[in-house]
Design a protein that fits this description.
This protein has helices at 6-28, 35-95, 97-116. The protein is mostly helical. The protein has one domain (6-116).
Length: 117
């Protein structure tokens, strides 16, 4: 699993801790708070949750982009290996045509035997 960069991780943890502190404060002072104070706290809480959600979403989209780039690199590498193998096989067949033909006939015969079962 991918590691979260420490700067992003610290930013997310700080926002979460700040949010938890505000909730705890609101819970402790709810007996003395007026409805306006509660509404203001709720609005602040909504803003903090929205900011935290945006931070997490941006982190996720960056990871998805990085995964796409990595998979593209793997596909390019595999494509290059297959092309090299194809070129090597073609060179082998051109240098030993009779031996290649005999091997192909043998493989075909074995596959025909296996497919009959």
């Amino acid at each position: 699993m991918a590691q979260v960069p420490s700067a992003s991780k610290n930013k997310i943890e700080d926002k979460a801790n700040d949010l938890a502190d505000r909730i705890e404060e609101a819970a402790n002072t709810s007996g003395n708070a007026t409805s306006g104070d509660v509404q203001a706290d709720l609005e602040a809480l909504r803003r903090d949750i929205a900011a935290l959600t945006q931070t997490v979403a941006s982190f996720g989209s960056n990871k998805i982009r990085q995964a796409g780039e990595t998979s593209q690199e793997y596909m390019d590498s595999a494509r290059e290996r297959i092309m090299n193998a194809e070129e090597d096989l073609e060179a082998y067949v051109r240098s030993r045509p009779l031996q290649s033909l005999a091997m192909a006939a043998g493989v075909g015969y074995v596959l025909a035997l296996l497919s009959r079962r």
